Amino acid sequence: MDTSALSSLPVPRDAAEQEARMRRFLTEWKDNLDNKHIRQQQETAQKFRDLFHPTDFAFYSPVVHSPYREIDTVSLILKWITEVLQDFVYTQTTKGYDHEGNPLLVLYFTAAVFDKDKKKLAVEGADFFKLDRKSGKVTTS
Prior knowledge:
The chain is an alpha+beta fold. The chain has one domain (4-140): Roll (Nuclear Transport Factor 2, Chain: A), CATH 3.10.450. Helices cover 35% and strands 28% of the residues. The protein has 5 helices and 4 strands. It has helices spanning 4-8, 15-34, 36-39, 43-49, 71-84; strands at residues 86-97, 103-114, 120-131, 138-140. It has a 4-stranded antiparallel beta sheet, with helices on one face. Helix 4 packs across helix 5 (71-84).
């Protein structure tokens, strides 16, 4: 995704409210990823589930051809990801809005995984989010 396009779109009238929604989402999202003690508990999937829009949601994976639309499945996938990735850190955030004023976020990260020989491998990537402008819930990831 070319992030330069994010800044070329007009800022919505309710930008301050949308900025607050983005900050709230980022805090909750990072807390879910950072709290290792929560990862062990069943409530992890519910904590992720609460961030997603209940009826208008799509999760795109780089390894699957069509998006996941079941929030329970995505919550489970995210729980597994938090168990596999080590030393996970967001390094940069890009914010913007789509043509309808919905907040867009790109979160760049670094992490590590271990191969079958227990060799630590560095990973870099990005998470893309589109939030519903009214609820602040994720509609596309």
